[in-house]
Amino acid sequence: MRHGLLAATALAALLAACGAAAAQTVAPETAAPEKIVAEPATAPATTEPTEIERFCSNIADAARDRRYALQRQELETLQKDIDQRMKALEEKRAEYEEWLKRREEFLSKVEDNVVKIYSTMKPDAAAERLAEVNVEVAAGILMKLDARKAGVILNEMDRKAAAELTRIMAAATRKEDPT
């Protein structure tokens, strides 16, 4: 990479010299007016190219090809970097999906255990505990319980709390979105 930068720097300097040589041979009317007046005309303008102009015209194609090669090399380096980053992102995505899958399995097991716990509780105790938790959580637990057990627990609850839980469970079983 260091050699490429040195070559690019040398190439830029060479092209700048070629550009300067070309600017010197431009017609006098394009030069600054002060210089035309201040300098005496010593030699008539020649149509024969100077040594620098010949050199520049001889290497112009090679310089352009080298510049393109350096640009291509830089693009390839950037492409490799992008590919490495894409691979790292893909690995992170796969890791995240694996973590999410394990989390969902854990939550499912926990939820099943909570349902089992409530199914073994006495109905009056279960009703008291469910009245204290979030209504969506309570409704979810009741929906997973055996219908007979859930009915007994709802019977033991305050009627307003039981009505709210019944409304949530009914809305959850609808086939269409109520909103």
Estimated radius of gyration: 42 Å
Helix content bin: over 70%
Supply the number of structural domains.
2
Beta strand count: 0
Instruction: Name the helix and strand elements from N-terminus to C-terminus, one letter apiece.
Output: HHHHHHH
Q: Uncertain runs with pLDDT below 50, 5 residues or more?
A: 21-38
Structural class: mainly alpha
Per DSSP, the total helix count is 7
Mean pLDDT over the full residue set: 79
Tell me the strand percentage band: under 5%
> Outline, from the CA principal axes?
rod-shaped
Distance between the termini: 61 Å
Largest β sheet strand count, sense and barrel closure: none
Task: State the main characteristics.
179 residues, 2 domains, single chain, rod-shaped, mainly alpha
Commentary on this structure:
The structure is a single chain. It contains 7 helices and no strands. The protein has 179 residues and is mainly α. The protein has 2 domains: 1-24 and 47-99; 121-179, no CATH class. The longest helix has 70 residues, at 51-120. The chain is rod-shaped. The chain starts with a helix and ends in a 6-residue tail after the last helix.
